[in-house]
C-alpha cells in the first residue's frame, strides 16, 4: 500500500507539470518573430533612409552669401561682380558651307582612281552615287560608300541642304608608302614591281552643278547677241573705218 501511494503521488506531480507548461502554436511563434523583425526594419527605414534635401530659396542663398562675405571667406570667383542678363551676347552657332571627306588609303593606282574622280566632280551628290553604283571599276564600290557617308555627315552634322549638295571638288593623292616586290625576269635578271596605294578626297557644297553653270553662261552669251531685225536701224555706223569694208 505504501508503494502504491508513492506511485500515485508521482503521477499526480507529473500531470501538474505537464498542465502548467503551455506549448505555443507555430503560427503564433512566426507572428511574434515577424513583428520583432518588422520593428527593427521600421527603425532602419525611419532613421537610415536617405532624406531629400530641400532647395534653398534665393533669399536664403543671398543671406548666406552675405554672411560669408562679411567673414571674408568668399572665393575669387564669387567675389567678382555679377553680370546682368543680356549684357553678354550668346555664342552664335557656326554655319557650315562645305564638308570635306575622304577614303582611306587602299591598293590602287592614282591614275586609275583619278578617272573616277573626274567622273563625279561637278555632279549632284545623288547623281555621283548613281554613277558609282553602275560603274564597272573595282574601286567604284568604295567610292560609292564614301559618298554616301559624306552625304549623311553633311546633312545631319553640319546642317547642309541635301537637295542642293554637289561634289564641288574631287582629287586624288598618293599614299605615304609604296609596297615594292622583286619581279623575276629571264637570264637571271630581276626588276622592282611597285604596288601603289592612293586615296580620294571630295568637298561637298551647296551650289549649282557644272551643267547649270554652263547653261547660265550660254544664256548670258545669247543675251549679248543683237539681231538686225526686219528693218535696219536708222542710226549712224558704229566705229566707222577709214575706207569701205568689202
Keywords:
246 residues, alpha+beta, Ribosomal Protein L22, Chain A, two-stranded antiparallel sheet, 7 helices
What does this structure look like?
The protein is α+β, with helices and mostly antiparallel strands. The chain has a domain at 98-212: Ribosomal Protein L22, Chain A, CATH 3.90.470. The protein has helices spanning 2-20, 26-48, 58-71, 110-120, 125-133, 140-156, 210-224, and strands at residues 98-102, 106-107, 165-174, 179-184, 190-195, 197-206. Strands 1, 2, 3 and 6 form a four-stranded antiparallel sheet that branches. The protein has a two-stranded antiparallel ribbon with strand order 4-5. Strand 4 (179-184) and strand 5 form a beta hairpin. Helix 5 (125-133) packs antiparallel against helix 6 (140-156). Mean pLDDT is 80; it is low at 17-24. One of its GO terms (cellular component) is mitochondrial large ribosomal subunit. Belongs to the universal ribosomal protein uL22 family. Keywords: Ribonucleoprotein, Ribosomal protein. GO terms for molecular function: structural constituent of ribosome.
CATH class of the domain at 98-212: Alpha Beta
Examine the secondary-structure arrangement and name the CATH architecture of the domain at 98-212: Alpha-Beta Complex
CATH level-four homologous superfamily name of the domain at 98-212: Ribosomal protein L22/L17
Shape: extended
**How do the helices and strands follow one another from N- to C-terminus?**
HHHEEHHHEEEEH
> Using DSSP, what is the number of strands?
6
CATH topology of the domain at 98-212: Ribosomal Protein L22, Chain A
Number of helices: 7
First and last CA, distance? 180 Å
Low-pLDDT windows of residues = 17-24
User: How helix-rich are the residues, as a percent range?
Assistant: 40-55%
Average the pLDDT over all residues and give the rounded result: 80
Strand fraction band? 15-25%
Rg (C-alpha, Å): 48 Å
Largest sheet: 4 strands, antiparallel
Helix vs. strand class:
alpha+beta
